[in-house]
């Protein structure tokens, strides 16, 4: 059976538990990722001629498995596996598997390393069989691990990883996906970390490109090299060294230039100039622009990028917001960059996205090719679009798509984006702080003094809901009536607002239109999805499906197409992605498998069965609805009997109640009590209660037996049904009953959101002005007089 992505990720993440002990995440990540690398290259390249990675004899993962349990396992891994592998493939700074300070000594080290190897030994992690062409399943797993490690490493040690969402934004706004790339197209990252940003740009290109990266930290450089191999870029040139003091990519004595340059350098590097004499920079990075201040290295990295770009090159750099408005030397550099027209755009990002810092950052986009014809700088304020993810913020798929769409099309959206002319920037002394040019603040909800004094809802507040009245012009006349010029009254009771909106003929037509719109997309997409075959590329599937859905809803009134898009992307991440990988690996195969759980002795035992692609509830709903209905009726019967028993016990549990003396009400106790009072002529009422209790519990027990038998029988029928399913039936179950039913519910919730938003606003306005001030004052006086009268009657004089 093909391996689901979610299972792959969770299985590998378990390996972290084997090492956590007292080790920091930034340390144990090295061991886990090296094991992942060795397992992958062993599965992928062992015995292959001309493979990009050479596996020396005796240095494969299989040889590592043979070392499990040996007292010198750590030393042997170093000598037999790590050493030869590193030597043959020019890998360096791999972790020491015999480090007692990190892995423990004696049996502790043996057990820890043996357990770690055993996790990667699992048959589900056979990477030679579980990688769909065009879908970097393993590379994505590597990214998943890097993200988790960065999260756990904390602020001080999470700098080796650029969040994948930010990397995707940069990769797409560079325009490499639409360029005529070849293997000669060059992409460079001067502070590449683990290489995630570099690889995202490469992934966006239509052809394979040439990658170059430099990283200061030696251990992280090793991670980047392994990352390149796992993403099928073993030929990428990743070098170690300080990019500012010793740039390794040169053409003779000058810097090598590239088609694309991207970077996420350390923010405000206070030691950037150590080892450099900026005024005598041999690579001429600062002369034309100015020398960055000694304690702020942001522009040093940006100017290195500018110098490393070809005359037709494009680049993007992630920097803190301070570079947009700080003065003195940085202001001069900023002015010179603006005057040359190199800055195409700036994208303001939300705060707390990055693992090394919580401050907000921006993406500065450099474009040399069109510098002379540029009229201004395109600004985007995307700071408000994100979701919370633990203690960090994260860009959603919709946020990424919106940024890319707006930037690449140059669309000006009020409160979000603007092309700011150079003349305006000059008037602001080349200060590029985004709020100077884009007011993204939510409009203040003003209070109307006259409405508070005289009543009535201001017509201006109703006019502000124009987008609703454009779709439902008559609805406004139903909801409001004239009060006086400029003011309206609510024409329906407050509690009837929602029903009035939802049942209005115009709104009904709007909902019918939205439903028909989805049905049209559903019909088209159902046919496409049912045509999937083994070997399909899941990433291509979701790309085409999601883009089609977004385009289908663009321009739809009252509906945010990016919200619709996000529903699909959420469901993809939750369910559809795994399903598509199963289809890619096995085709339309629905085969139930036992669910294995560990018992008290740690042994795996079967507990029922499950089928990932076609879960049991789908089979039951389509083929055994009658049996399921009978089960629901039995459950309702049992619930009713249980309630009757509970009510009976509650009614007769008082001080003099039948059950007052019972420590616990059970069958044995009730029967014993009946025996005790069988000759008591005055205990008739008590006998009746006890017999009723026995009768109800007997019915409940019998109903539970019947339910258990019905459930077991349904379980057997459902299990047997899988073997009889045709491929067309499986496609219907998956595409129609599973995928489309879920998506329909999620997307239709957007129409409910429309009515709820309008209802909430209308009610808010009605309540705000429903009691004018004179009326409120009069009511207060009435209440005060009533209180005074009560006090007088009680003998108090005011």
TrEMBL record:
<keyword id="KW-0949">S-adenosyl-L-methionine</keyword>
<dbReference type="InterPro" id="IPR004546">
    <property type="entry name" value="Restrct_endonuc_T1M"/>
</dbReference>
<feature type="domain" description="DNA methylase adenine-specific">
    <location>
        <begin position="135"/>
        <end position="445"/>
    </location>
</feature>
<dbReference type="InterPro" id="IPR029063">
    <property type="entry name" value="SAM-dependent_MTases_sf"/>
</dbReference>
<dbReference type="InterPro" id="IPR051537">
    <property type="entry name" value="DNA_Adenine_Mtase"/>
</dbReference>
<feature type="coiled-coil region">
    <location>
        <begin position="624"/>
        <end position="658"/>
    </location>
</feature>
<keyword id="KW-0680">Restriction system</keyword>
<comment type="similarity">
    <text>Belongs to the N(4)/N(6)-methyltransferase family.</text>
</comment>
<dbReference type="InterPro" id="IPR022749">
    <property type="entry name" value="D12N6_MeTrfase_N"/>
</dbReference>
<keyword id="KW-0808">Transferase</keyword>
<dbReference type="Pfam" id="PF02384">
    <property type="entry name" value="N6_Mtase"/>
</dbReference>
<dbReference type="GO" id="GO:0009007">
    <property type="term" value="F:site-specific DNA-methyltransferase (adenine-specific) activity"/>
</dbReference>
<dbReference type="InterPro" id="IPR038333">
    <property type="entry name" value="T1MK-like_N_sf"/>
</dbReference>
<dbReference type="InterPro" id="IPR003356">
    <property type="entry name" value="DNA_methylase_A-5"/>
</dbReference>
<dbReference type="Pfam" id="PF12161">
    <property type="entry name" value="HsdM_N"/>
</dbReference>
<protein>
    <recommendedName>
        <fullName>site-specific DNA-methyltransferase (adenine-specific)</fullName>
        <ecNumber>2.1.1.72</ecNumber>
    </recommendedName>
</protein>
<keyword id="KW-0489">Methyltransferase</keyword>
<dbReference type="GO" id="GO:0032259">
    <property type="term" value="P:methylation"/>
</dbReference>
<keyword id="KW-0175">Coiled coil</keyword>
<feature type="domain" description="N6 adenine-specific DNA methyltransferase N-terminal">
    <location>
        <begin position="10"/>
        <end position="120"/>
    </location>
</feature>
<dbReference type="InterPro" id="IPR002052">
    <property type="entry name" value="DNA_methylase_N6_adenine_CS"/>
</dbReference>
């Amino acid at each position: 059976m093909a391996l689901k992505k979610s299972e792959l990720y969770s299985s590998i993440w378990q390996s972290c538990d084997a090492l956590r002990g007292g080790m920091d995440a930034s340390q144990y990540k090295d061991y886990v990722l090296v094991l992942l690398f060795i397992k992958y290259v062993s599965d992928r390249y062992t015995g292959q001629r001309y493979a990009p990675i050479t596996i020396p004899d005796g240095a494969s993962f299989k040889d590592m498995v043979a070392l499990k349990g040996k007292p010198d396992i750590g030393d042997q891994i170093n000598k037999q596996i790590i050493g030869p592998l590193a030597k043959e493939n020019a890998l360096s700074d791999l972790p020491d598997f015999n480090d007692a300070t990190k892995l423990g000594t004696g049996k502790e080290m043996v057990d820890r390393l043996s357990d770690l190897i055993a996790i990667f030994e699992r048959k589900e992690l056979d990477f030679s069989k579980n990688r769909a062409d065009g879908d970097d399943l393993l590379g994505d797993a590597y990214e998943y691990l890097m993200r988790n490690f960065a999260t756990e490493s904390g602020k001080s040690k999470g700098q080796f990883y650029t969040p994948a969402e930010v990397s995707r934004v940069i990769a797409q706004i560079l325009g490499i996906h639409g360029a005529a790339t070849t293997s000669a197209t060059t992409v460079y990252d001067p502070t590449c970390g683990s290489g995630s940003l570099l690889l995202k740009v490469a992934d966006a290109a239509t052809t394979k490109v040439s990658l170059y990266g430099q990283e200061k930290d030696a251990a992280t450089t090793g991670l980047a090299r392994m990352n390149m191999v796992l993403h099928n870029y073993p030929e990428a040139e990743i070098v170690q060294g300080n990019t500012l003091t010793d740039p390794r990519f040169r053409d003779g004595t000058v810097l090598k230039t590239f088609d694309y340059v991207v970077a996420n350098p350390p923010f405000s590097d206070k030691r950037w100039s150590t080892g450099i004499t900026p005024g005598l920079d041999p690579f001429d990075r600062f002369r034309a622009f100015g020398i960055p201040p000694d304690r702020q290295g942001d522009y040093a990295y940006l100017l290195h990028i500018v110098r490393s770009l070809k005359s037709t090159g494009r680049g993007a750099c992630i920097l803190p917001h301070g570079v947009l408005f700080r003065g003195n030397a940085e202001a001069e550099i900023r002015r010179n960059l603006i005057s040359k027209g190199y800055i195409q755009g700036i994208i303001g990002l939300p705060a707390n996205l990055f693992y090394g810092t919580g401050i907000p950052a921006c993406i500065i986009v450099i474009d040399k090719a069109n510098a002379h014809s540029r009229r201004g700088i395109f600004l985007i304020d995307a700071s408000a679009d994100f979701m919370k993810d633990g203690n960090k913020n994260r860009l959603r798929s919709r946020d990424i798509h919106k940024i890319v769409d707006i930037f690449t099309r140059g669309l000006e959206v009020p409160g979000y984006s603007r092309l700011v002319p150079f003349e305006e920037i000059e008037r602001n002394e080349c200060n590029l702080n985004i709020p100077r040019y884009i007011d993204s603040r939510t409009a203040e909800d003003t209070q109307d003094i006259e409405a508070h004094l005289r009543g009535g809802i201001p017509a201006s507040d109703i006019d502000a809901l124009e987008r609703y009245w454009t779709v439902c012009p008559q609805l406004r006349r139903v909801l409001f009536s004239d009060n006086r010029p400029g003011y309206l009254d609510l024409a329906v009771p407050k509690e009837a607002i929602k029903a009035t909106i939802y049942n209005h003929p115009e709104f009904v037509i709007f909902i019918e239109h939205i439903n028909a719109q989805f049905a049209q997309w559903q019909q088209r997409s159902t046919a496409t999805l049912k045509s999937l075959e083994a070997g399909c590329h899941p990433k291509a599937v979701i790309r085409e499906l999601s883009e089609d859905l977004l385009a289908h809803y663009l321009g739809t009134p009252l509906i945010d197409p990016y919200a619709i898009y996000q529903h699909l992307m959420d469901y993809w991440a939750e369910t559809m992605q795994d399903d598509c990988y199963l289809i890619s690996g096995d085709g339309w195969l629905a085969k139930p498998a036992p669910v294995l759980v560990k018992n008290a002795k740690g042994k795996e035992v079967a507990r029922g069965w499950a089928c990932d692609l076609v879960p049991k509830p789908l089979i039951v709903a389509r083929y055994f609805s009658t049996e399921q209905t009978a089960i629901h009726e039995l459950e309702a019967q049992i619930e009713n009997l249980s309630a009757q028993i509970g009510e009976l016990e509650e009614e007769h549990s008082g001080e003099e109640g039948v059950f007052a003396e019972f420590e616990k009400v059970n069958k044995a106790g009730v029967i014993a009590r009946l025996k005790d009072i069988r000759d008591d002529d005055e205990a008739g009422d008590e006998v009746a209660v006890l017999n009723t209790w026995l009768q109800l519990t007997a019915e409940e027990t019998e109903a539970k037996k019947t339910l258990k038998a019905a459930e077991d029988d349904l379980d057997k029928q459902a299990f047997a049904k899988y073997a009889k399913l045709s491929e067309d039936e499986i496609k219907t179950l998956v595409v129609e009953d599973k995928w489309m039913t879920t998506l329909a519910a999620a997307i239709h919730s957007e129409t409910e959101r429309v009515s709820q938003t309008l209802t909430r606003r209308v009610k808010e306005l009605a309540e705000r002005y429903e009691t004018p001030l004179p009326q409120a004052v009069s009511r207060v006086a009435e209440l005060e007089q009533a209180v005074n009268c009560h006090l007088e009657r009680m003998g108090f004089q005011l």
